[in-house]
Design brief:
By secondary structure, the chain is mainly beta. It has six domains: 116 residues, Spermadhesin, CUB domain (Jelly Rolls), CATH 2.60.120.290; 102 residues, Sandwich (Jelly Rolls); 95 residues, Sandwich (Jelly Rolls), CATH 2.60.120; 107 residues, Jelly Rolls, CATH 2.60.120; 101 residues, Jelly Rolls; 95 residues, Jelly Rolls, CATH 2.60.120. 5% of the residues lie in helices and 48% in strands. The strands form twelve sheets. Strands 2, 3, 5, 8, 9 and 11 form a six-stranded antiparallel β-sheet that branches. The chain is elongated and about 105 Å long. The termini are far apart.
Amino acid sequence: MYTSVFIFFVLFSAVYSDANKCSSGDLIQRPNNGYPIYWPALWNENEPAPQLAGNQYCSWYIDIPSGYYAQLIIRAKTGDNSSSFQITDSSGLKYNIDHEKEEPWYFPSGSISISIHTNAPATFALKVSWAQYPATTIAGGIGTSPLIVNITKDAFGAQYNAVTGLSLLAFPADLKNYYSLRSTLVFEGNDYNGRFVSNLYEMYKTHNQWMSNGAYIYVVNVEASNVLNQLLIQEAGYTKDLNPYHELNCAPSSTCSKSIHGGNSKSGFVYVGNQTQTLLDITIDYNATLSVYHGSQNSAGYYKSYAGSTIRSLLPLPFNGKVVQYIVSSGKSMFTFKLSECQSTSIYRPDNGAPVYWPRTWNENQTAPHLAPNQNCYFYLSNTNQKGYYMRLIVRSKSGDSSSKFTITDSSGVVYNISHEKEDPWFFPDQSLTIIVYTSSRSEFAFKVEWNLFPQKTQHNAAIGINPVVVNITNDVYAAEFYSVIGCSLLAFPADVNNYYSLRSTLVYEGQDYNGRYVSTLYDIYKTHTQWMSNAGNIYVINVEARSVLDQLLVQEAGYTVDLKPYQELSCARSSTCSKTLKGGKSKSGLAYAGNQTQTLLDITMDYNATLSVYYGSQNSNGFYRSYNGSTIRSQLPLPFIGKVVQYIVSSGTTMFTFKLSG
């Protein structure tokens, strides 16, 4: 036993004593199997960096083949101020890596070198991996209007061009942690074979615009991240006379100051986003002018100019716009802005599956916080292409006036008004969702979103033929595929005709499962008060959350209902007397009842020559019960009808029914 322990200790000591020393001129090349390379070889990212002895000079050369980029992860810490760790890229730019915590670096094809000089003991480890560039998906010309790109959301390559050249400014989502900008590489030329300039991380650190030498640039983001960093791309002809030209990038709800010193020339800064920028204070030369542009610095974008001699008397001044330019004619200026509370952002499903709240400090046990007037922002919700999930969204909102708007746009482009919400849940498929908020007066707004897995098993497969099917759709978690020859017709019958939010949990797709084309929820289908018919034979209906509510869904072969215009549900409260009007014109129209109550027809007004046909079941010979002439039916009232599915079909014209439903 002691011998085994001694051997292990010797081996352990040997491994880590070797790791304390490094050599110069080592070449690291991409292996044929494409696996990453580690130094030391036994280190990995889950371990602290090993010790490196003092008084060493080491270097590595990393080869990056054509068509590939390299991701470099370093964990390092120098032991004193005179030691140095440095990267030199293919364009000769040098990067200090004295204190690295594994935030990835990205480099283009060519070679990079890493050099280390330790006077005192330090820690150091690295990992390098190679991957091919993403495909070029965008090619665009930049003209009189600027372009904003969500630059790190997806992996993509893009070629941009302009007549005189291009101007770039980056706007990170997090002003304190913007390492995600390292994944975006910029080249001059048509593609990644052009001259490598830098990454957006280094460009942003200059806090000044970068301008190309030629008419074409290529921008490639090699790794998608859940961060909404933005890149402003402009025709350089509109910005090259500005020196300096900075970004205005402040946190939401913050008060921030910005100073620029243009001397005898023009200077400026630009805001990108959806917050209101309220100018609270300004110091500007008496004879200077502040010009504000919404868009580019040209006649199309021009908004207004303010004289340095009078602008302070006009404060505060609010400005709104996705791109707002502040251009000073000359001299030194200092601005103080108050930014609104609401900022556009992307929200993705967390790896731990926890719900996400906005604002982060809000929860369902609190009242919704207030939003200030004059705010415009959006929230992009997504599950980053992970299939099999749905979104559950709770919104608490109250707009302050009729001009304020809160909306949801789902993945199929349907827009929902959420200006007055009381936390009745919304349910959406696992594709993207956008919430847009605009306030013209003080309003209330908060939301919670979470992602849950769909029920994994289709519990029912039903062929719809000559008989209709009635499903208790919301009292259990339920998934069903229905199919018919011509198509399927759906009508929803909520248990409570005044409160039918429970229908939101039932999602409808065309196809065999939830990978098909998303149509809508039953809540929105019911609000149309007419049948929905599929374009094909198969539909998939899934209720994702059980409710203690007996909502019902009537599923029929569309061949029996396609000729009915309109065709609506007869959905009335128990023990109530209710009226229903059909306007069929020259074509047939109809009502359908689904339930267990007796429907007693108390009164009817219909065309003299029209006919009312009643069916128990589908509108076919099997379901036919009886027909009544418009000229005589009133003399036969009251008429009771009993059946789980009762159809009232009118041959033509306008008809008004009055029913008494049993308790």
